[in-house]
Amino acid sequence: MPTEVIPPEHKSPSEDWEHFELWTKINHVLKEIPSHFRSVISISGGINATEIYAFGSVLGVTIEEEVVRTLNDLRDDWDPDNKYENYENLGVRG
User: Fold this and answer.
1) Domain spans of the chain?
2) Is there a contact between 22 and 74 (Cβ–Cβ < 8 Å)?
3) Rg of the chain on CA atoms, in Å
4) Is 37 helix (H, G, I), strand (E, B) or coil?
5) How far apart are CA 34 and CA 37, in angstroms?
6) Contact 36, 74 (CB under 8 A)
7) Given phi > 0 = left and psi -120 to 50 = alpha, else beta, which region is 91?
8) What pTM value is reported for the model?
9) Looking only at Cα atoms, what is the longest distance across the chain?
10) Model confidence over 2-18: pLDDT tens digits?
């Protein structure tokens, strides 16, 4: 018998939160990332479905670096008044 999958509930932070405006702007910028995404990775030719897992870590790091780069490049969109000038999106390093 299949189990029903319940999607996660979206919860926004309280509008009273001191960083709510930043949160809203960052969410908007995150939706713009695909139009700013750049990568030097090019995969061409025949790839078997079982081989795609070999690219997982490379693709993951590339996506992470591009998200961080784009957030930093679009700083004027999410922090136009330089309220968070001492903050930078650094990403995660393992």
Assistant:
1) 18-34+54-84
2) no
3) 18
4) coil
5) 5
6) yes
7) left
8) 0.66
9) 55
10) 789 999 998 899 999 99
Give CA separation, 55 vs 4, 37, 47, 82, 91, in Å: 31, 18, 11, 38, 20
Quick one: tokens of 48? 């078997």
What 3-state class would DSSP assign to 32?
Answer: helix
pLDDT(47) > 80: no
Distance CA 8, CA 62 (A): 26
Question: Which tokens hold the place of 82?
Answer: 């330089």
Give Cα 93 to chain centroid, integer Å.
Answer: 15
Candidates 54, 61, 57; CA nearest to 39 is 61
